[in-house]
């Protein structure tokens, strides 16, 4: 998958052909990547999928390091492995997952591929199924790990970890300090 920032996004509709045309201006730093991606995607007769969403800067490495420090303190206080604490909070976050239906024959391969992306890339089978033609589809929830979080998701992730720490009487940084850390990072990201 290719991801890049664009501006000046415009949709035009041709009522005669009932087609939409999309034009965009890639970020100056991404122009060669966009050009390469478009060439690769348009080779051959492929069906393409395009996702357009509001840009949010990625999460800060400082915030990520702080999250892992707190996860380590939680693990030490509770006796639960740090990775298990991390995965549980990933599940609780809320907007970091996709509900999907996958062909039953492909489900195990999908789970293996998804979880190979990182520690927090989790799947849960929902137990629901449906038939699509001759194929049986199984319901699954696929969670994105913190490596894919934007700054808003990372902020909520840290808030959840801080709540868990407070319940376990673990000292955390003041909310203002965490907010300032995230704001400094957002400011640096916007300058680039």
What does this structure look like?
This protein has helices at 31-42, 61-78, 82-92, 107-115, 151-167, 175-191, and strands spanning 6-14, 19-26, 97-103, 123-132, 135-143. It is of the alpha+beta class and 192 residues long. It has a three-stranded antiparallel sheet with strand order 3-5-4. Helix 2 (61-78) packs parallel to helix 5 (151-167). It is flat, with a radius of gyration of 21 Å. The chain starts with 5 loop residues before the first strand and ends with a helix. The model has no long low-confidence stretch (mean pLDDT 84).
**Cα distance spanning the termini:** 23 Å
Tell me the Rg in angstroms: 21 Å
- How many strands in all? 5
> Averaging pLDDT over every residue, what do you get?
84
In percent terms, what proportion of residues is strand? 15-25%
Strand order of the largest sheet: 3-5-4
Approximate shape: flat
Following the backbone from N to C, one meets helices and strands in this order, namely: EEHHHEHEEHH
Oligomer: single chain
The main pleated sheet reads as: 3 strands, antiparallel
Task: Note poorly predicted spans.
Answer: none
| Share in helix | 40-55%
By DSSP (H or I, 4+ residues per run), the number of helices equals 6
Structural class: alpha+beta
Quick overview of this protein structure:
This protein has six helices and five strands; from the N terminus they run E-E-H-H-H-E-H-E-E-H-H.
């Amino acid at each position: 998958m290719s991801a890049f920032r664009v501006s000046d996004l415009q949709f035009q509709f041709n009522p005669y052909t009932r087609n939409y045309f999309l034009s965009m201006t890639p970020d100056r730093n991404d122009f060669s990547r966009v050009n390469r991606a478009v060439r690769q995607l348009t080779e051959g007769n492929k069906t393409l999928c395009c996702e357009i969403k509001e840009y949010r800067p990625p999460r800060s490495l400082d915030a990520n390091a702080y999250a892992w420090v707190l996860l380590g303190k939680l693990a030490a206080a509770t006796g639960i492995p740090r990775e298990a604490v991390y995965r549980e909070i990933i599940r609780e976050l809320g907007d970091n997952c996709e509900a999907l239906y996958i062909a039953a024959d492909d489900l195990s391969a999908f789970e293996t591929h998804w979880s190979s992306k990182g520690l927090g890339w989790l799947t849960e089978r929902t137990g629901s199924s449906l038939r699509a033609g001759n194929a049986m589809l199984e319901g699954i929830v696929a969670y994105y790990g913190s490596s894919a979080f934007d700054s808003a998701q990372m902020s909520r992730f840290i808030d959840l970890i801080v709540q868990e720490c407070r319940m376990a009487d673990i000292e955390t940084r003041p909310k203002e300090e965490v907010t300032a850390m995230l704001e400094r990072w957002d400011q640096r990201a916007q300058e680039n």
